[in-house]
Write a structure and sequence with these properties.
By secondary structure, this protein is α+β, with helices and mostly antiparallel strands. The protein has eleven helices and nine strands. Bound molecules: 3,4-dihydroxyphenylalanine (DAH).
Length: 359
Amino acid sequence: MQDKLNEIEKAALESLTSINDPAAVEAWRVTHLGRSSALMGVFSGLGKLSKEERPIVGQAANRVKVALEAALEERSKLVKAAVLAKSLEEDHIDVTLPGRTRHIGRLHPSTQQLRRVLDILAEMGFQVFTSREVETDEYNFQLLNFPPHHPARDMQDTFFIEADPPTGSGQDRGDNPILMRTHTSPGQIHAMRKFAAANPQDPPPIRIALPGMCFRYEQITARSEVQFNQVEGLAVGKNITFADLKGTIADFVRRMFSEGARLRFRASYFPFTEPSAEVDVECFVCGGKGCQVCKNSGWLEILGCGMVHPNVLMNGGYDPKVYSGYAWGMGPERQLMLRNKVGDIRYFWGNDVRFLEQF
Ligand code: DAH
């Protein structure tokens, strides 16, 4: 019996040395230590032995079992270590490889500039008032002192929501067609009416910025797009003068462009302001000497402004004998073009990431 046990042990230990993977380790365990292994056969045969033989064989079999278990444990550790070493070798990461760059999302340049403008205006005490993009002719033109058929309407070619009447029908669109706003100025009327409604006898003063998209039915070129943002400013109160307008615009220009930015007011015409002006800043590109960007004038136009026309104040519910006000309209895309020397307005809605990524 002792010989048989020695043989079992020897055969088992020998076969263990050639085992190199976890599945074979498990198979070895089943073969040599499992329920139907030769060793277990010895244990289950103990009952048939004599009283004297039983403890001797039992002890000897136990010793073989302990030895095989210890050998199994050791082999299994070796195999696991080998497997780990192999996978580390095969799957190793080359930390010197350059990483894959990710595209990081960001705000559209127009949104960035719009926010810059509104941040500055907020510091200066202007509250944001948003107004609709789809308007009526009444708000977009008539209440802003553009009479029907007035030639000033030609300054702003319009997208109408309703279909064109058939040509030669002699019909027109009626008195108050629905249209896409051509400027943010109709928001002035909405705002004044809303503020005045709070106290019609003595309407409160107003100091607001009206941002938003505007639409014009124009040929798209490097200088004009069918849609663009504007930021309208409006201040209404008692004793507001042109000096307030000049001071406010000058302050804005210095905060937006540079402390030393020079600017000038040039007389102009808008139906909804009287007097009206356009504001130019000294060309940032050439410093006023004259270049391509400023078309050799040394100046860049940045906005239109003026004192709110008495008819417009009245239409908003503010008595022009008691109240006065100033207003302006400026374009964030235009400011960005001037600031960053963007030569073509079409880049803004062209969705070319090579352009957008630069902001
Ligand atoms: N609405 C004008 C435009 O789009 C811009 C403008 C000019 C707005 C003068 C104003 C203003 O409020 O006073 O061309």
